[in-house]
Amino acid sequence: MSTATDTTLPVEHEPSHQPDERALFSRLAASMARHRRAVILVWLVLTLAAAPLAITLNTALSGAGWDAKGSTAEKVRLELRNDFPALGAENPVVVFQQSTPITSDPSGLKALEAQLAKGPRVLSVADPLVMPPEAGMISRDGKTALIPVEQRIGVEADRPVAAGELGSYVGGLTVAAGAKAEVTGEWPVWSDFNKMNEEALHKAELLSGLPTLIMLFIAFGAMIAAGIPLLLAIAGIATGFASLHMLNWITPISVWSMNFSMMIGLAVGIDYSLFIVSRYREERVEGKDPIAAIENTMSTAGKAVFLSALTVVLSLSAVFLVPVMVFQTMALGMILSVIAVALAALTLLPAVLIAMGDKVLVSRGKKDPDIVAEGRWARWTGVALRRPALVLAIGLALLGALVVPSFGMKLGMPGARVVDKGRTSRDGYEMLVAAYGTGAAGPAFVTVDAANAQSVIDTALATDNVVDARIVSPPATTGRVVVRVTPGTPIDNSATSSMVEHLRAQLDTAVPDALVGGPAAQNHDLTSVLTGRAPYAIALILIVAFLLLLVVFRSIVIATFSILMNLVTVGAAFGFATLVFQHGFGTGLIGIEHQGFVDAWAPLFFFALLFGLSMDYQLFLLAAIKERYQATGDTRRAIAEGIARTGRPITNAAVIMIIVFIAFGVTGPIPPTELGLTLAMAVFLDATVVRVMLVPATMALLGEKNWYAPKWLQKILPHVNFSH
What we know:
alpha+beta, Multidrug efflux transporter AcrB transmembrane fold, CATH 3.30.70, four-stranded antiparallel sheet, 24 helices, transmembrane helix, MMPL_dom, SSD
């Protein structure tokens, strides 16, 4: 192969040293390069074998799993299923409405019931006209009726599927003139929510694909080079999806793991490949032969990719502290995607680069745009190096202005309005609350010994925000009954959660054998476990990140200020989320209804992902600075050259990551929109304010103290070199 030497290499750009062939990542790169045909063949076979599993992943995953394991709400759910099946607390409800009182003209209702009996998986259809008035199946104005439908259910994952089938079936029925029928309830809402999620995934893939390819073309100036990161990311994601599919054979995996693993896998996969390809092209421009160039590339950019992936994986692992299947498998999906794309970047990419020869290099007669851009970045960094205190103050002020709103963040879990209007579960919900009251769609169910049922009713009616409490089941064989408690506010209102908390506190004293569950309590318990476990998970992430930085850079100072900068970035992102999703600023532009709160899972997930991704750019940047410091011994020069050399690649990577996150953010329901847009803002802040202002200014003020660690610590820390 030829050596691509640029005789016009800028004087200030000092070529890197020859590689250390004994170094681990150099040996890995050389092995991949020399056995490139075998490596490419293995990945090709792996990707082709993974494709069928990846393509069919959505149909295999579960739409259930939102209960907090071990919570009171989960215990009540199981008791209702086992001891009170006739109550049908989880059954889909068909909301039927006509313009005249149903009791005076029941023909439309009877016709609908007859058709429902023939519906998918239907075992029984309750007739609201024959149910006792205290059951509340007919609205006060007599024009709306609730028809609980019992379906044949095998496992938990069947519930949203069956509810979705019923919704589609009812949507195709013809009802009496002037009447309408919709299907709502817990599982119809989750069914529609999951469908929106699947549709959003396909839209995001289309929306992000072309802009990403264009950005890669701008980054490399050649379509072949531009296509490599995208193909590598796809190969990694396919492998990750296939792994998820196979794990689903062993344990249920949430369908939500797909969206988030695709988003993170695509974003970091392209970024990892972009950093490696950019560094390889630079090494070739400096005059190295292909093997030496790939060895140097993997010893620097490849090592940073490995450390970045490790950081993201460790950060996401903290989510397993939350005992909720959906969140655990969402984290698992993202972890598998990150591992898969990192493996592709570290093994397949070196083989592909060597196999393609000069086709991935800068065209002859043209200068490497990354090297050309170094001058601009050096000038911008020079401002921070000359006036570090002022630049640091301005940068902190900018981020601080965004951090302030985060102190007013309110947390909650969404209700049926997280589903778009026009979906049967949302339209049925609106019909139900209009006829029965805002809390009717999300009651609490209290299971209690029959002898104490009246005490539960009296206690509930004396509790703030309770509008109704009544027994809704005959005694079970256990001697217990069910009391339905209806709040005066929707399920996603904080007042409903407060009602559950106060009711439980009073019943713990008055009726110790009473258990409070049902939809209202499920939201309360889910929020409680998320907010309760978040501090432990966040502490674990901080400790692991600090130790990793300490080992990599052998400096307490760098580890400390990196953690602090990431905390400020995360705080600013939280502030952005609070402004948009809690207070509604700009929601009209993205076509969503703000909920008045930020989803309760956000702090933990935001922190884990934001911290992992913030560390991504910190590691690449600080690794480049350390590499230059090891080469020159001059901290000030190392800062300038490290930022200059990574300036254009990090900017391109950040733009691509922002494109991917925004695409997933604007196409989905509120939860992925929250995550996508907040991640996009965090990456923007990281790639601009943190990289251009905070890092150079802080390091300039610290000088040689940047590399400080006690002598006793230096003796036990391993040496992680980014020089050759």
